[in-house]
Amino acid sequence: MDNRIYGYARVSSREQNEDRQIEALTKFGVPSENIIVDKCSGKDTEREGYQYLKRQILRSGDTLVIKELDRLSRNKDDIKHELEDFKQKGIKIKILDIPTTLTDFSNEQMWVMDMINTILIEVLGSIAENERNKIRSRQREGIEAAHKKNVKFGRPEQPKPDNWDSVMLRVASGAIRPVDAMKEMGITRSRYYYLCERYDFKRGTK
């Protein structure tokens, strides 16, 4: 069976668009149906599409094409490990942004190209890892700045029911039970007890 060519593209979130990578891969000659796409962070290699590609599709003699080195990962050690793993399995890697990986050389020239590629990958892997560290640093700084401005994260706080005060007065007097109060206010048990804690209401538990 002929050796096959596959492409891999990755964007960090579902809001980002992978078209630029796919266009580059198909222009290089990768069939569109042979391109696997992940929409998740490059912090490690545990990505559904990528792992399926490695474990179920690629075999010795195949070629994997990616647009940029950091599509594999933004962790330098992961990048080096993945490239070595592909090499041991007889899978060729072509990285469009590293032209020296795109040409097949004779055995006499291969050691020179391996040396050049090793240097390039070391440098670009360090850049990718540094970029991820900068992104994480900016995220932390943004969160800290938001906290200083009292910006709240997560779901917005839902207000208590309009009839909360009047209903809870009746609970406090023993006129109705908590379960009746929940029904009257149209809230769940967990919401009821959350509000009791939030507003420091001393109540029964039935």
Overall description:
The chain contains 7 helices and 4 strands; from the N terminus they run βαβαβαβαααα. It has 206 residues and is α/β, with parallel strands linked by helices. The chain has 2 domains: 128 residues, Resolvase, N-terminal catalytic domain (Rossmann fold, 3-Layer(aba) Sandwich); 52 residues. Strands 2-1-3-4 form a 4-stranded parallel sheet, sandwiched between helices. Helix 3 runs antiparallel to helix 4 and helix 5 runs antiparallel to helix 6.
Entry summary:
Helices cover 50% and strands 10% of the residues.
Write a concise keyword list for the protein shown above.
206 residues, alpha/beta, Rossmann fold, 2 domains, four-stranded parallel beta sheet, 7 helices, elongated
